[in-house]
Amino acid sequence: MVRAFLGLGSNVGDRAGYLREAVRGLDTPDLRVTGRSGVYETVPWGVTGQAMYLNQVLAVETTLSPKALLGRCRAVEAALGRVRRERWDPRTVDVDILLYGDSTIREPDLTVPHADLARRAFVLVPLAEVAPGLRLPDGTAVDSLLAASPDRGSVWRWDDADAGTIGHEVRWYDTLPSTNELARREAEAGAAEGTVIVAEQQTAGRGRLGRVWASPPGGLWLSIILRPNLAAAQTPLVGLAASIATAAAIEETTALHPRLKWPNDVLVGGRKVAGLLLETRPPAWLVAGIGVNVNVAPEALPSRPRYPATSLAAALGRSADRGRLLRALLRRLNRDYDEIRGRGADGILAQWRARSETLGRAVQVSTASETIEGLAYDVDETGALLVRTHGGADRRIVAGDVTGEVEAGVP
Ligand code: BTN
């Protein structure tokens, strides 16, 4: 019996299902699966614009020779539909031999330890989990390789609660002009609901009201393609849900307690950390573009007199995990989006009111045609802001920018 380790990866279709099927196919009397790591989601390495991978590492005990084991791995891949073409092709499932006892093998079709093993966090993280304290044949500790791995931040834990419609496919790009721009084109071209587009940086990031949105590396810049099939007047509710999901995800993954400024700004300590741009062609599609200043230096963000910008890293005094934040956001949005479509607006409105920094305050709201001053006292069932003016008139504001506030409760 030889102890070996196998690496699994999938970035097409039901990724978790393919991993489960691969484990089932591998586990045979001459190849016993004795341990398995958790499932990790990883940014595709060496390509831009591909769907994210799920990766897992198996510990096995086998009587097969290295070549026979390789043949078994290929057979399981083929049974699950993988056709090996280009090196960086998307793949239903990929099964690699990472380690085979203490052997070192250098042959044209088989390199053991696997060539990616020492460098890539998507292998090292699950390997360190399934075999704590493991050393490679040359004596190097896996833990020390992991500590030195530059891409540790692009690997995070995934679980079945992450399997909803929104985020079933997340495509990760190095640089885009604007994720919203690409998402709009993809939505027009028929992309599935729930497809998410992420960019490391944007060169022409768009903000609300025609503003520029600074999008340097380190932030989380994403757009979600939705097909909510709601009346046009109700689409702002999806914006409220997306900003609630952003605030809740920040709260879940950091020690911060974000608040919301109407309609969709996310504030930490009175400073803006995230914004949302909804673009829609009802009833066909809606794109929710979300920008979160995660690990961005405040100097890289534009200065604004009211609600100056900040980042999570600046507020925390350390960097934050973008992958965990992304998954927490998508999980929450899946839940609330289903609720809006199934049960209506009440739950979302209650959550928004509870986090609101705007309600109960004297505000100044600029719309396309005028500036309205008064007490912001509620939002209606479509997400419009309700303001009682100083003259006592009630105004309903569908689109605008809250540009000023004075002390809480002063009308
Ligand atoms: C705002 O003005 O507050 C909205 C900012 C929205 C920025 C995000 S970043 C990802 C997506 N792509 C864009 O071009 N804009 C949105």
- What does the average pLDDT come to? 93
Instruction: Extract low-pLDDT stretches.
Output: 406-411
- Name the quaternary structure: single chain
User: Percent of residues in helical segments?
Assistant: 25-40%
Give the overall shape, derived from the CA principal axes.
elongated
Structural class: alpha+beta
Tally of helical segments: 9
Across the major sheet, the strand order is 4-10-11-12-16-15-14-13
| Ligand catalogue | biotin
Most strands sheet:
8 strands, mixed
Radius of gyration: 24 Å
Q: How do the SSEs run, as a string of H and E?
A: EHEEEEHEEEHHEEHEEHEEEEHHHEEEEE
In what range is the share of β-strand residues?
Answer: 25-35%
- Number of beta-strand segments: 21
Distance between the termini: 79 Å
Break the fold down into its secondary structure elements and pairings.
Blueprint: E1 2-10, H1 15-26, E2 31-36, E3 39-42, E4 50-51, E5 53-62, H2 66-79, E6 94-100, E7 105-107, E8 110-112, H3 121-130, H4 142-147, E9 155-158, E10 169-176, H5 179-188, E11 195-202, E12 220-226, H6 235-253, E13 259-261, E14 265-268, E15 271-281, E16 285-292, H7 312-316, H8 322-343, H9 346-355, E17 361-366, E18 371-379, E19 385-389, E20 394-397, E21 401-408
Parallel strand pairs: 10-11
Antiparallel strand pairs: 1-5, 1-6, 2-5, 3-5, 3-9, 4-10, 7-8, 11-12, 12-16, 13-14, 14-15, 15-16, 17-18, 17-21, 18-19, 19-20
Helix pairs in contact: 6-8, 6-9
Bound molecules: biotin (BTN).
